[in-house]
């Protein structure tokens, strides 16, 4: 038995989520096998998702959160399938875990990989190295609002979807972003706002940002409207390091960021409960990709990169670097899936990453 065993709950869920979780597990198990008994991973797989819904009328077991609590981390695939309305599947599984486990910081690195053609031909690895820090517990995804059909009748229905911004929620994600910026070569935090149009929540966001920034005089700051930030991602990538944004803004911007680096299939993410009162959850940014699911063609690197973030969370920073270097060696040697201009299968990419673990 190993010196340290990490218990991980695998929740592959739907579509390519099932395929990429298998890839990530294979890489981590290969890494553990090379650790000379220093660490091991003890996996428990949960069958939750849209197929489970078809059978049980719910996305996860009633006591699912209780079951997950016992684990060191959750390794998640992607949830959503055409048989279940997207808001039911997302709220029934992924958001349920994120919100109940208070995983309030969602960390999404955006980096170039060697050999992967970018949609921005003018940018390269030296100009683009960001982390999008997403507020992951409130904002536009607080689930506040309602619909009123009965009172107004068909054709006149009204819906309200409110965003919730609390000073505590804003402050903790901003401090997290500043602390992260201090660990990086470029010490800068860019706050994404829309306070010109949203005069309550986003103005509070801006005020808290200014107040927190004052505690970090060594970190450069800027505040940018979300629409301008979308343009800046494309036009001035070299001007960004840590980007802190609300739940919805960061959701959109991180997909844009991964598209700039070449594919949504590359992007990794960590949903952190920084206090470690609950398990944190690691998952690729992409969804279940029903258009390519089941063909063995999806890109496993977002999920494998997420596994590297999980290693960091476990205190295995050197091993996380080994996995990242193996990812770079793989793309650099031309072994790439179709979405990033290659012809390799998911399994070939996974095997190549495992093959490169030894030269870490
Ligand atoms: P998506 O991320 O599944 O797919 C968007 C595009 O990116 C598709 O063309 C897909 O083929 C491509 N793509 C995604 N992952 C890829 C990979 N690993 N390799 C290569 N190409 C990849 O987003 P979409 O189509 O909007 O949503 C599909 C389903 O996924 C929906 O049910 C949605 O609700 C769900 N979803 C779930 C998420 C999660 O569980 N965290 C996040 C986003 C969407
Ligand atoms: Mg998203």
TrEMBL record:
InterPro entries: ICDH/IPMDH, IsoCit/isopropylmalate_DH_CS, IsoPropMal-DH-like_dom, TTC_DH. Its cofactor is Mg(2+); Mn(2+). Residues 7-353 form the Isopropylmalate dehydrogenase-like domain. Its EC number is 1.1.1.83. GO terms for molecular function: D-malate dehydrogenase (decarboxylating) (NAD+) activity; magnesium ion binding; NAD binding. Keywords: Manganese, Metal-binding, NAD, Oxidoreductase. It catalyses: (R)-malate + NAD(+) = pyruvate + CO2 + NADH. It holds the Pfam family Iso_dh. Coiled coil: none annotated. This is D-malate dehydrogenase (decarboxylating). It comes from Streptomyces abyssalis. The lineage of its organism: Bacteria, Bacillati, Actinomycetota, Actinomycetes, Kitasatosporales.
């Amino acid at each position: 038995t190993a010196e340290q065993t990490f218990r991980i709950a695998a929740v592959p869920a739907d579509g390519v989520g099932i395929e990429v979780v298998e890839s990530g597990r294979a890489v981590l198990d290969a890494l553990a096998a090379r650790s000379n008994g220093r660490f091991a991973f003890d996996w428990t797989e949960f069958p939750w998702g849209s197929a489970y819904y078809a059978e049980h009328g719910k996305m996860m077991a009633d006591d699912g959160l209780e079951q997950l609590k016992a684990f060191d981390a959750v390794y998640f695939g992607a949830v959503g399938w055409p048989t279940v309305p997207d808001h039911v599947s997302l709220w029934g599984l992924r958001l349920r875990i994120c919100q109940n486990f208070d995983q309030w910081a969602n960390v999404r690195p955006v980096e170039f990989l060697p050999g992967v053609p970018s949609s921005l031909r003018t940018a390269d690895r030296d100009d683009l190295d960001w982390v999008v820090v997403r507020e992951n517990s409130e904002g536009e995804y607080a689930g506040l609002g309602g619909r009123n059909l009965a009172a107004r009748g068909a054709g006149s229905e009204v819906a309200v979807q409110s965003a919730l911004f609390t000073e505590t929620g804003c402050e903790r994600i901003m401090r997290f972003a500043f602390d992260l910026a201090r660990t990086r070569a470029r010490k800068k935090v860019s706050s994404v706002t829309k306070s010109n149009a949203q005069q309550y929540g986003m103005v509070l966001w801006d005020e808290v940002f200014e107040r927190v920034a004052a505690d970090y005089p060594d970190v450069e700051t800027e505040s940018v409207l979300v629409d301008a930030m979308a343009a800046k991602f494309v036009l001035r990538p070299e001007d960004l390091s840590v980007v802190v944004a609300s739940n919805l803004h960061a959701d959109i911007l991180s997909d844009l960021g991964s598209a700039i680096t070449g594919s949504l299939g590359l992007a990794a993410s960590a949903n952190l409960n920084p206090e470690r009162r609950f398990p944190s959850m690691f998952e690729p940014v992409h969804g279940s990709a029903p258009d390519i699911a089941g063909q063995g063609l999806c890109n496993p690197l977002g999920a494998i990169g997420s596994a590297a973030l999980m290693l960091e969370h476990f205190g295995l920073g050197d091993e996380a670097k080994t996995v990242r270097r193996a990812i770079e060696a793989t793309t650099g040697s031309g072994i790439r899936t179709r979405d990033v201009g290659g012809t390799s299968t998911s399994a070939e990419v996974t095997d190549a990453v495992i093959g490169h673990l030894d030269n870490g």
